[in-house]
Amino acid sequence: xxxxxxxxxxxxxxxxxxxxxxxxxxxxxxxxxxxxxxxxxxxxxxxxxxxxxxxxxxxxxxxxxxxxxxxxxxxxxxxxxxxxxxxxxxxxxxxxxxxxxxxxxxxxxxxxxxxxxxxxxxxxxxxxxxxxxxxxxxxxxxxxxxxxxxxxxxxxxxxxxxxxxxxxxxxxxxxxxxxxxxxxxxxxxxxxxxxxxxxxxxxxxxxxxxxxxxxxxxxxxxxxxxxxxxxxxxxxxxxxxxxxxxxxxxxxxxxxxxxxxxxxxxxxxxxxxxxxxxxxxxxxxxxxxxxxxxxxxxxxxxxxxxxxxxxxxxxxxxxxxxxxxxxxxxxxxxx
Length: 335
Ligand code: PMV
What we know:
- Helix content is 35%, strand content 24%.
- The chain has helices at 3-11, 86-95, 122-138, 144-154, 208-218, 225-242, 245-264, 275-289, 313-319; strands at 23-35, 40-42, 47-48, 52-69, 73-76, 79-81, 105-112, 166-169, 182-185, 192-197, 295-298, 304-309, 324-327.
- The strands form 3 sheets. Strands 1, 4, 5, 6, 7, 8 and 9 form a 7-stranded mixed beta sheet that branches. A 4-stranded antiparallel beta sheet has the order 11-12-10-13. A two-stranded antiparallel ribbon has the order 2-3.
- β11 (295-298) and β12 form a beta hairpin.
- The chain is globular, with a radius of gyration of 19 Å.
- The site of (3R)-3-hydroxy-3-methyl-5-(phosphonooxy)pentanoic acid has 14 residues, from α3 and α5.
- (3R)-3-hydroxy-3-methyl-5-(phosphonooxy)pentanoic acid is lined by residues 33, 36-37, 52, 121, 123-124, 155-157, 208-209, 299-300.
């Protein structure tokens, strides 16, 4: 099955190429996986081997604006993007799923307030906001699950960026992936904060797609990954429902370390650790030993995302002055 088959399956008679509005814009938050998506069972449709669970980062994400135009153009944070660049091609290929060769064409403006391509899930909020904006432009009125499936076709983790708060992406088991979408786990946890420790904003080099594929194909440790995810999902859901911060932190950090271990054992080995990443990890472990309850997670990039409770934010900042801490006033479903 191709991506275009899934688009037809979802949009059915709504798939027309004439937009109902001349412009539309939408915001989607970026999300950080506490239990990672690592490995695809179908790489065309971005169907995962396992389910995963994330937290969305409030007002941190991307806003995409579409305006009907004579030809396509893209600007990202006020800079023009070449349509032939990797980024440009990926976005245009995605848009082509929803239009014919004769258009419509768009002036696309993207504003992102997170570092692009540094393992900060920029593709997640990028594709989710694109799908949300297209839904408005064409007036599809799709359900959140359908929007999540379409966003997944752009990037797996985008399936979770349709919602705020905690989101579980169910792996599903259908070949067409119609059961592989996010679900909002509505729960408020107002004193939970996420710290962004930016170690490098440079392009990460190896994409998560390539790293994932190499890991699945060559890592002897990958066989243990689905069981690890199963256990961690149960623990995380328990931690969220009982607001058990230690359980949330321990499970998230352990899950991330296990994912990176599968990469280290791939061949050729893959690592997103920079020396400064490891130094920061060791500092976190040391601080924790000294009684400061902080935990980290890491994605396909060198940066760390820290989990911390509001009461410990000031102490954390003393140790990591460059950290940016996001305090959510509301961590709950937006449905
Ligand atoms: O959605 P992708 O293809 O960028 O993959 C994301 C992979 C991780 O960020 C490492 C894990 C996750 O679940 O977000």
